[in-house]
Design a protein that fits this description.
This protein is α/β, with parallel strands linked by helices. The chain has 19 helices and 19 strands. The strands form 3 sheets. The protein has an 8-stranded mixed β-sheet with strand order 1-2-4-3-5-6-7-8, with helices on both faces. It has an 8-stranded mixed β-sheet with strand order 12-13-15-14-16-17-18-19, with helices on both faces. The chain has a 3-stranded antiparallel β-sheet with strand order 9-10-11. Helix 2 runs parallel beside helix 10 and helix 4 crosses helix 5. The longest helix is centred in the first third of the chain and has 20 residues. The two termini are 46 Å apart. 49% of the residues are buried.
Length: 624
């Protein structure tokens, strides 16, 4: 049973990057005897799970396989963003006949205008696309080798225009020991924020990615880093592995579609890493009306450009990735590393996650609230609401606006509002005012006398402030949701359970009780069987939510994992049972297994939590 569970967990973890089964176990075709089109198996695309194939077109010198000799090289020629097969790139027949290569066009992932521009899935921007191209290249390489047809294994090239240039650059990155030459014609050196998120004033390209970790189109920092061709850390890896391809970067100085500045940055980084790069930056003085007709994105005759820079390239002197069949191509990124395995000959990518990595942390680090508002002053200290306004995030805003106030955890001693910025941002994008709360913490230099009682007081003060200033803030005082994780969950439920107020608010007629509660692995039992007794002291029972359940609590959804060793699951279960027993609406969402805060370590679990949370808020009519 233990082995079976372990195997199942491994399969789930690697679901988006399945292991290869080898050529014999897949439907690989034979090489055509003359120029022709075939379909080959491709790696699964997580956006649309299931088997996938890629169509490729093979062009031999003189149109016949029989014309391949030991002097014949291999060359990818890759289409542009929105194109198919050989659109927007060098003509394959011209390459085959004039350069003596087997030229290969690839209908890589999202080929065609509908898939690349009109469909809702984000545009891949070179990762799986380059793996598709490399599989096509391997197919020809393996087919010739398997039939004992001599060819120039040390002369392997790739070229492409625009998106095809990007895929060519990425193919060289993911197979750094394979190519002898790369001719990039105005390709995208990286998946910039402009391209990824269609930012105003950007390039005009829209790859349709999202910054929201709850979105299926979320672009993680790791995914963005692997798609940066000039990533300095990754160039060091390529240099260490012995990458020797000459990378010819042909880029128009006036290009605003794939900005010229990005190409300059990439070239500078290649040079700094000691890699062979040859910039061919085209200005107006370089236009000849034949080969070069534009210093912008189009450039000119891409066939002639590719042929011009494909001659006299140095041959590769070492075995290719296809021949080496190892797993040494590893690129470190935020939260883990991408591994490109060549154990079966063709490449298969997988992501190996760093243990204990918090999946929300990179997004939280990049987000900033639209404003901060002081809700309370304690002595010389001001406590703030970190506000994410829905209008600033393009959300449809109702007037007045519901509020989603979230409170970070950290055992009442650590953490910060930034920790839950992604959740506040998410609900701001859904039309609520998203707020992350700053509250006093224990044993801080400026809060030496702070207790857990004070933490709860701050939570109640925040809700009162929102209601008392609803008109100025533009919020609906009857639609305030308070959420919290771990110790923040304790503060959240404490706003409804505990009559703890500052002296100045003791006679306030404004209720601090929220209209709904969202509790994420909360501190819910402060006894010695739960969490918090050591920090609260002898008065622990006064602040133990499970011991103070009463009728009239707001509708509550509570998320907890069964293997939580910090705030044990039993307390959450008892709280939900007792709350329902006195007539409250309390839904307990149980996650089997899992650690404390399970959803911040697993993106799939986080999305499930956010989806269930959203359903709950819709049912309670808290979402616009």
């Amino acid at each position: 049973m233990i082995i079976r569970l372990g195997f199942t967990a491994l399969v789930v973890w690697l679901a988006s990057f399945p292991a290869p089964v080898g050529k014999a176990g897949e439907n690989w075709p034979e090489l055509p005897e003359s120029n022709g089109e075939v379909e080959i198996p491709a790696q699964e695309w997580p956006m649309k799970p299931g088997p996938r194939t890629v169509a490729i077109r093979i062009h031999y010198p003189g149109g016949k396989l029989a014309n391949v000799t030991q002097e014949t090289g291999l060359m990818l020629t890759l289409h542009n963003w929105g194109g198919t097969f050989c659109a927007g790139t060098a003509n394959p027949d011209a390459l085959a006949n004039r350069l003596n290569v087997v030229a290969i066009c690839v209908n890589y992932l999202q080929s065609g205008r509908k898939a690349s521009v009109a469909d809702p899935e984000p545009y891949d921007c070179g990762f799986l696309q380059s793996l598709d191209a490399l599989r096509a290249l391997w197919f020809v390489h393996d087919g010739l080798s398997g039939r004992d047809i001599p060819f120039a294994k040390n002369r392997i090239l790739t070229t492409g225009g625009s998106g095809g240039g990007n895929v060519s650059l990425m193919a060289n990155k993911l197979a750094p020991r394979t190519f002898s030459g790369v001719i990039d014609m105005c390709g995208m050196p990286k998946l910039s924020d402009d391209i990824a998120f269609n930012l105003p004033g950007g390039t005009g390209l829209n790859a349709r990615w999202s910054r929201d970790p709850a979105s299926p189109n979320f672009l993680s920092l790791a995914d963005q880093e692997i798609r940066f061709v000039g990533n300095p850390k990754h160039l060091e890896v390529m240099k260490h592995l012995g990458a020797s391809a000459r990378v010819v970067v042909v880029h128009g100085r006036s290009d605003t579609t794939c900005p010229f500045a990005d190409a300059e940055e990439m070239v500078a980084n290649f040079r700094a890493a000691g890699l062979d790069v040859s910039p061919q930056f085209i200005g107006k003085d370089d236009l000849d009306g034949k080969v070069y007709t534009s210093s912008a994105h189009a450039l000119g005759n891409r066939t002639e450009i590719a042929i011009r820079y494909s001659t006299d390239l140095p041959a590769r002197k070492s075995p290719s990735d296809f021949d080496l069949r190892d797993e040494k191509v590893r690129y470190p990124v935020t939260g883990g590393e991408f591994v490109i395995s060549y154990k079966t000959g063709y490449p298969v990518a997988r992501f190996e996650r760093t243990p204990n990595f918090r999946v929300l942390a990179p997004t939280a680090a990049r987000l900033e609230p639209d404003r901060e508002v002081v809700y309370k002053r304690v002595g010389d200290r001001s406590l703030h609401l970190h506000i994410f306004d829905p209008a600033e995030r393009g959300a449809k805003v109702s007037a007045p606006t519901p509020v989603f106030l979230i409170i970070h955890g950290g055992g009442w001693t650590g953490g910060e509002p930034r920790k839950f910025y992604p959740i506040a941002d998410h609900f701001a994008r859904r039309g609520m005012m998203g707020i992350s709360l700053e509250y006093r913490l224990l044993r801080k230099a400026d809060d030496a006398a702070t207790t857990v009682f004070d933490c709860v007081r701050d939570g109640r003060s925040a809700v009162r402030f929102l209601r008392e200033n609803a008109a100025d803030l533009g919020i609906d005082s009857d639609k305030i949701v308070v959420a919290g994780g771990s110790a923040g969950g304790h503060v959240a439920v404490g706003t409804a359970l505990f009559d703890l107020d500052e002296p100045a608010q003791a006679d306030s007629q404004t209720s601090p009780v929220p209209n709904a509660l969202v509790l994420l692995n909360p501190v819910i039992d402060t006894s010695e069987n739960g969490y918090g007794k050591a920090k609260i002291g002898d008065r622990w029972k006064e602040l133990s939510p499970v011991d103070h359940v009463k009728p009239g609590l707001p509708p509550t959804i509570l998320f907890h994992s069964t293997d939580d060793k910090v705030t044990p699951y039993g307390g959450a279960k008892r709280f939900a049972e007792r709350s329902r027993a006195v007539g409250n609406d309390c839904e307990l969402i149980t996650y089997e297994g899992g650690r404390h805060g399970y959803f911040i370590f697993d993106l799939a679990a986080y999305r499930e939590v956010m989806n269930r949370m959203t359903d709950f808020l819709k049912a309670e009519e808290m979402l616009p």
